[in-house]
Amino acid sequence: MNRTIRPAALAATAAAALLATLVSAPAALAATPLTISAVTASGDDGNVPANTIDDNLSTRWSDEGDGVWIRYDLGSSKTVGWIALGWHRGDERPFTFDVQTSTDGSSWSTAIGNRTSSGSTTAQEEYDFSDRAARYVRVVGHGNTLNEWTSITETDIYGAGSPGGGGGGGNCTYPAQILNLTNWKETLPTGSSESPTEIKQPALNTFAVDPWFKVNSSCDGVQFRSAVNGVTTSGSGYPRSELREMTNNGTSNAGWSSTSGTHTLVISQAVTNLPATKPHVVAGQIHDSEDDVTVFRLEGSSLYLTNGDDTHYKLITSSYQLGTRFEAKFVVSGGQVKAYYNGTLQATLSKSFSGAYFKAGAYTQANCTNSSPCSSTNYGQVIIYSVTVSHT
Question: Which listed site, 144, 194, 231, 288, has its alpha carbon 20 to 30 Å from 163?
Answer without folding.
Answer: 144
